[in-house]
Specification:
This protein is of the alpha+beta class. It has 14 helices and 49 strands. The protein is flat.
Length: about 850
């Protein structure tokens, strides 16, 4: 166990020793600076510990971690490998030498390489001599070397045309382009020669020798201002006093320059004052100054032989003698609309002229105002600001403003405020604006030449603060010019020109302008309205004024059907809706609008819409057709309701079926009718066939033959005996059998007639005229009357002697009865007597069953009675 640990330690030590041995190498040459753009050539030399195991063939070169191509290698021998890099342009780079060891790249050695340029000859050597203080020199080094460069400044004295060294204090070294000799022991009257040597790793160069006069390069400290005072009783004047510095070349005259400026006008002026040696105190009177104005004063001086001025002294301030303001101020106003009570706010603002003393010297402003027709109501306000707001009534007012200080008041600036109902006259016809490179020009035309004074007012269109407006008076001109600096780009300005006539202000003429435009910040949003099948109205709102960035010249509507080609329409800037026509029906469209000004256009968000399948006209047509159809159907329905009985008779006639008639039951059930039945039966046996009246006029001639059923003869012969039995016996059972038998024998063409007993003698010679009786009329008159007046059935026992041939000759078939077994006609003579009241009462029980059975019954058949009387 212990021996194993020993062997591991030995192996680790041997590997460490081997690791150290492969790092035994150097890079030659060792210099790290080369000229930029030249070829870099370096060699890596392996140490003696690396040779037994590795040689130069295993060396790898890298530059800043990037492998250098092997074609740049050169194997000198087993221990030396060189590399060449052409056109080396790196300012700083690391060159590394590696060797492959144990399958890995191991770093042997590395070096830093810098590239640069050799120094150029220094030139433009300049020196400044501060008497008994220092001598400072600067020079121009030329091109930057990108390498550490060292400079040495040499100074030598020239006496009698010969240059001599000054000893140990004759050089100054620096790594920059300036160097200073502190406390030089040099007479001011001597001339000095200066030279500069520049050197770095790539070279050394010496400048040319430059000779300087000490008096010419002298520069002394700035003078000290002792006072800036005004003289009592003398206006527009300040006296300045100053002291020269102590350290300056003796026996030299000096020149001093005084700078003074108005603190509020930024107007600077200079005055030059000479000083003779040995004068150390200087004085100067500054004249032509403003009254009651504060000035700032500074002084600098120079030796008459020198080329260097001293620095400016510290500024000192002084004020001129105070006097009352002599010039009136410019006064302007902004009038708001009156409220419901007629009172309005008037915003006053004023400013001093350029040559007016600074406002700091004014103690305040006095504002007086009164109604134009009553000066006794004058009121006074005071303000320290150059603005005030007054609340006036509807009357015209006169307003005046004066500035005051301790010496007095300025002249009054007067302005008239018109009454609320007063209409100002229009004196300006046109106003135009134009732009130059640096100025804004406003020109106007006046209709009345007596106006010689104008006020030009301009402000941002979106500014609502009345005191945010700018204005300027213009005298004896219809043209105003100002700098573009007074305006902001991409902002709409309102420019108004007001004519002044005395203290009255005429009506303004306004215009809008942009000094610079750019495309709108946003586009209009499209909205669709009144959609149709082939057209649509596109609407949009104006872009807000703050986002127009210029005057909108037009709008362009772009629209595109789904899967189709994009189209567009352009309209003027005053159009905010447009009707797109000739669109495809039931189609989806994409639409957006672009707003354009002189600088370009911006599109709004797109919107989709879909045209209709039907437009309003189509809907109207369909609605009209449907309405007409409904009206027709309604009319037809109402006609059917009102005329249903007529239509029913024409289209679906309701013909009673004799087989279903309850007349027989009604006759049997009524005991009051038994005498009538007996009388009818007795008379029926003795009635001749001549009493039968045939309705010839009701049957067409061509349909008489063949219309009777084949069982007609049997029916007639059978009915004769049956009726006689029924009329005599009156047995109910026999009657019922007879009714069933008669129902089977009814023919569609069988005739049913009734004749009048009282006119029997007349029926032999002529047919009794027939009368169609309606159901209600028949029930009320004929049936009830038949019981009382002995109305009898013409079918009696005499039918046995009636022959079929004679009946066919006399009978005329009704075409209506020909086609229906439910149609019967009741014929009665018009000469039947009216029944008595007693007989009507006795038959009152008969009416209900007859009405129930005959709802649509137009005729009462004779066989109904025959069924009852035949027994």
């Amino acid at each position: 166990m212990f021996s194993s640990l020993i062997w591991m330690f030995i192996l680790l030590c041997s590997s460490v020793a081997d690791e150290n041995s492969i790092r035994d190498a150097v890079i030659f040459p060792s210099s790290s600076e080369i000229r930029r753009g030249s070829s870099l050539k370096r060699s890596c030399v392996l140490g003696r510990h690396s040779t037994p195991r590795r040689n130069a063939n295993h060396i790898i070169w890298k530059l800043n971690h990037e492998p250098i191509p092997p074609e740049n290698y050169n194997i000198v021998n087993e221990t030396v490998s060189s590399v060449t890099i052409h056109n080396f342009t790196y300012k700083t780079a690391r060159l590394k030498c590696y060797i492959k060891y144990l399958g890995k790249e191991q770093l042997l050695v590395h070096t830093e390489v810098k590239s640069g340029f050799p120094p150029e000859k220094p030139r433009n050597i300049s020196c400044i001599y501060f008497y008994r203080d220092k001598l400072a020199c600067t020079w121009n080094s030329g091109r930057e070397t990108d390498l550490p460069t060292h400079y040495t400044l040499y100074r030598k004295v020239m006496r009698s045309g010969k240059v001599k060294s000054l000893g140990g204090d004759s050089t100054c070294e620096s790594n920059t382009t300036s160097c200073t000799f502190v406390h030089p022991d040099t007479p001011y009257s001597d001339f000095l020669c200066f030279e500069v040597k520049a050197e770095n790793a790539l070279g050394v160069v010496m400048s040319e020798s430059v000779t300087k006069s000490m008096g010419k390069i002298e520069k002394f400290a700035p003078p000290e201002i002792l006072s800036v005072k005004k003289i009592t009783g003398v206006k527009n004047l300040l006296t300045v006093t100053w002291k020269m510095p102590e350290k300056m070349i003796p026996s030299q005259d000096s020149i001093c320059q005084i700078q003074y400026r108005n603190l509020y006008s930024n107007l600077t002026k200079f005055v030059t004052v000479p000083l003779k040696y040995p004068q150390k105190i200087g004085t100067c009177n500054l004249t032509g100054l403003w009254d009651s104005t504060e000035y700032s004063v500074a002084i600098r001086c120079i030796n008459v032989n020198s080329i260097f001025w001293s620095e400016w002294s510290e500024e000192e301030k002084g004020s001129t003698e105070e006097t009352a303001p002599l010039v009136k101020m410019d006064l302007w106003r902004v009038i708001e609309s009156p409220n419901s009570s007629g009172r309005r706010y008037v915003h006053l603002m004023w400013k001093t002229l350029n040559n007016f003393p600074a406002s700091r010297r004014i103690l305040g402003y006095k504002v007086q105002y009164f109604p134009e027709n009553n000066a006794a109501l004058k009121m006074t306000n005071r303000s320290t600001a150059q603005k005030i707001t007054l609340l006036l009534n509807e009357e015209a007012h006169i307003i005046s403003v004066t500035a005051y200080n301790s010496a007095g008041n300025s002249p009054e600036a007067v302005l008239r405020i018109p009454s609320t109902h007063e209409k100002a006259s229009q004196m300006i016809e046109t106003v135009s604006t134009s732009l130059t490179n640096e100025e804004v020009v406003v020109e106007w035309t006046a209709s009345k030449p007596e106006a010689s004074e104008y006020v030009v007012e301009w402000y941002e269109e979106l500014v609502t603060d009345p005191f945010g407006r700018s204005w300027q008076y213009v005298l004896n001109s219809t043209k105003w010019t100002t700098s573009k600096k007074n305006f902001k780009p991409f902002i709409c300005y309102n420019i108004s020109v007001y004519p002044l006539h005395g203290n009255k202000v005429a009506a303004p003429y306004s215009t809008h302008t942009y000094i610079q435009e750019k495309r709108p910040s946003e586009g209009p949003v499209a909205d669709t309205a009144v959609l149709g099948k082939n057209e649509v109205i596109i609407r949009w709102k104006e872009i807000s004024l703050d986002k127009r960035n210029g005057f909108i010249t037009n709008y362009t509507i772009f629209y595109k059907p789904e899967g189709g080609k994009q189209l567009n329409e352009t309209v003027n800037s005053d159009v905010l809706q447009y009707r797109l026509k000739s669109l495809q029906a039931d189609t989806q469209y994409l639409v957006y609008i672009m707003a354009s000004n002189r600088a370009g256009g911006t599109s709004g968000e797109p919107k989709t819409f879909k045209t209709l399948k039907l437009d309003k006209f189509d809907v109207y047509i369909i609605a009209v057709l449907v309405g007409i159809s409904m009206l027709l159907l309604l009319g037809l329905w109402m006609t059917c309701i009102l005329k249903k009985h007529t239509f029913k008779k024409v289209c679906w006639p309701d013909i009673p079926n004799p087989a279903e008639s309850i007349t027989v039951e009604w006759l049997l059930a009524t005991s009051a009718n038994s005498s009538l039945l007996k009388r009818v039966a007795s008379e029926a046996t003795t009635r001749d066939f001549e009493d039968i009246s045939v309705l010839e006029h009701c049957f067409p001639v061509e349909s008489q033959e063949g219309s009777l059923p084949t069982n007609y003869e049997g029916h007639v012969s059978e009915r004769t005996g049956t009726n006689a039995k029924g009329m005599i016996s009156g047995d109910k059972k026999i009657l019922c059998n007879e009714e069933n038998e008669a129902a089977k024998c009814f023919s569609p063409s069988m005739l049913y007639v009734i004749t009048d007993d009282f006119t029997r003698s007349q029926m032999d010679s002529a047919l009794t005229p027939v009368k169609e009786i309606q159901p209600t009329e028949m029930l009320a008159n004929n049936l009830c009357g038949s019981q009382q007046t002995s109305v009898k059935n013409e079918e009696n026992d005499a039918e046995e002697d009636f022959k079929v041939e004679d009946f066919n000759e006399k009978a005329a078939f009704n075409p209506y009865l020909k086609n229906s077994v439910r149609t019967r006609e009741f014929l009665i003579s018009e000469s039947l007597p009216e029944p008595s009241m007693d007989e009507r009462k006795s038959q009152s029980g008969v009416l209900p069953p007859l009405q129930q059975n005959g709802a649509g019954q137009s005729y009462i058949t004779l066989d109904m009675f025959g069924m009852a009387t035949g027994q």
